[in-house]
């Protein structure tokens, strides 16, 4: 067992040194996306059977996103969304060489989940998995684009500010993001399908061979994610170098403050001694 662990460490180190993608990240992005989509999209089939309501579907999405963050966040960042992956790379938070592997893993994870659900619930029309404008009077394309971009913006900015900002309370970051997903699914689920994720729409579209209005659910999340990431890392979240400089300045100020305190204490001590002599 020790030899296996040693081999695994050496193999992973060799991959990093040669510039290839660490296998752990590929596995966790693929598995994380699969698990989120299997539970989230699967809840739609359970709702169709009358076992749960929209609240239950929304809770399923929010809960599995939260679990995924705590399961794989420390390994691969819990990436499940190509729009967020692309946006983070655009603002310099993710190496571009990792983007194609992340995106491919996210799409494949969703596709595998969609195909499995289609087989498991063969008695229900698989097109239930698609993200499309809903209701007797479906929203126009423009309204869907605006709403999808907006909810993706909320999702992305919550993820960045709660999980990446060094000043944030990291322990509750996963809960905060899950709560945002729950509320978004509850509000937008019956209007646009609340995709927020190109992979979420692409996987079911391939599984059902139905690409109706897919372009909307690819472009809109990209707009929202890029806007949120740009706002966060260009304005809201301080630059890493600024944080380091500030920490260094605080350290110097602390040393200077300690020196002054020692000098004052010595001066007070000398004054006490002089008073005793007198």
From TrEMBL:
Regions that span the bilayer: 26-45, 52-72, 103-121, 172-194, 214-237
Give the primary localization class: membrane
The answer to whether UniProt assigns keyword Transmembrane to this entry is yes
Cellular component, GO, one term: membrane
Q: What does the UniProt entry say about where the protein is found?
A: Membrane
Keyword annotations of the record:
Membrane, Transmembrane, Transmembrane helix, Transport
Protein's membrane topology: Multi-pass membrane protein
Q: Which Gene3D superfamilies match?
A: Glycerol uptake facilitator protein
Top-rank taxon of the source lineage equals Eukaryota
Pfam family for this entry, one = MIP
- Which InterPro entries does the record match to this protein? Aquaporin-like (IPR023271), Aquaporin_transptr (IPR034294), MIP (IPR000425)
Q: Which PANTHER family match?
A: AQUAPORIN NIP2-1, MAJOR INTRINSIC PROTEIN
- Give the family this protein belongs to, as stated in its UniProt record: Belongs to the MIP/aquaporin (TC 1.A.8) family.
User: What name has this protein been given in UniProt?
Assistant: Aquaporin
Lineage, please? Answer: Eukaryota, Viridiplantae, Streptophyta, Embryophyta, Tracheophyta
């Amino acid at each position: 067992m020790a030899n296996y662990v040693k081999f695994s460490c050496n193999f992973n180190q060799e991959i990093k040194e040669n510039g290839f993608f660490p296998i752990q990240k590929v596995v966790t992005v693929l598995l994380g996306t699969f698990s989120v989509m299997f539970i989230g999209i699967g809840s739609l089939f359970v709702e169709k059977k009358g076992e749960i309501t929209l609240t239950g579907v929304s809770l399923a999405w929010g809960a599995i996103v939260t679990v995924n963050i705590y399961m794989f966040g420390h390994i691969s960042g819990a990436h499940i969304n190509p729009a967020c992956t692309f946006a983070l790379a655009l603002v310099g938070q993710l190496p571009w060489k990792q983007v194609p592997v992340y995106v491919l893993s996210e799409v494949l994870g969703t596709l595998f989940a969609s195909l499995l659900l289609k087989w498991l619930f063969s008695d229900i029309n698989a097109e239930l998995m698609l993200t499309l404008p809903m209701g007797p009077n479906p929203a126009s394309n423009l309204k869907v684009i605006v709403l999808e971009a907006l909810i993706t913006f909320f999702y992305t900015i919550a993820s960045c500010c709660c999980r990446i900002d060094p000043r944030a309370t990291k322990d509750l970051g996963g809960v905060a993001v899950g709560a945002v997903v729950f509320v978004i699914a509850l509000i937008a689920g019956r209007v646009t399908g609340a995709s927020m994720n190109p992979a979420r729409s692409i996987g079911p579209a391939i599984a059902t061979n139905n690409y109706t209005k897919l372009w909307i659910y690819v472009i809109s999340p990209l707009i929202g994610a890029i806007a949120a990431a740009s706002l966060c890392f260009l304005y809201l979240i301080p630059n890493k170098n600024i944080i380091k400089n500030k920490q260094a300045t605080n350290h110097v100020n602390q040393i200077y403050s300690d020196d002054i305190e020692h000098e004052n204490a010595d001066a007070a001590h000398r004054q006490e001694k002089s008073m005793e002599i007198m």
